[in-house]
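This is your field. Have a critical look at both lines of this record:
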Amino acid sequence: MYRPQRDTMPPLGLWALVGVATILIFLATYRFIVLEKEKDFDSRIAYIQHKSETAGNRPVVLMLGTSLSEYGLDSTTEIEKQVSCINRQNPVIIKIWKPAIQVNQMVDNLNYIASKPPQLLVIEANMFCYAPRITMLNQTLRAFYSAFRFEPLHEPYFPDKTPEVYTPHTGNIGDFRDKTVDTLQLISFRKWANQLQASGTKILLVNFPIEMQEEIKKWNSSDTIAFNRNIRFLQQQLKFFYYKPSCYLDSTNFIDKAHMNKKGSKLFTAMICNSIAKALQDQ
């Protein structure tokens, strides 16, 4: 008599092998991403060197930040134009941003500029508040997505290029930031900034505003103690200007709760240019 064959499940050992292979592929992909992302600064360093070498007698202003700077600052040409209108110094603006970078990572990659320091260093003070939240899973999935779309893992650096497509973050702003930055993470920056100041570099820390309601919560939370502690830690060895906007920007100036749209960036750029001009005049 004919008996239909029953479907048999693969043995447990085979499932275990598939699981181990998946984990190994995941870890190898993540390690590859880490190694490739280290090359991201090569094009940024080349950009800094070119702008510095062609500056001539013009004062050089180096601006460092995260995606808040990417979205919150107008073009380098516009910043140069606005500062020149205020103090007639015709500066060279070098704008360096990298999403989700920590201040100590920025310093590790830019240590070399101590040999040719800028006249003014402008740094996003938000980097001294919260660390970005970066997960292995998120990075790896984004790498697979980029590969699926045949996108390069890293591209040449264009300081004024804004991504054409941006998916606003509509959830809790705390979802994409980590705990507050500890003073131990700021030691490398303070040491590096000390070297720059010894060579005559002025330093300007700028607080990039986030959406009004989030900004109010940020400066009225228990984390405010940590923010002020970090500023005092830097002041122990550094002299710097500190700019924190006295006004709030509402939601019409933002793509989401943290990143500015064109309207917001133009408004904030006009504010910050006054501080840059003042810092250069105090040389």
Observations:
- The radius of gyration is 23 Å.
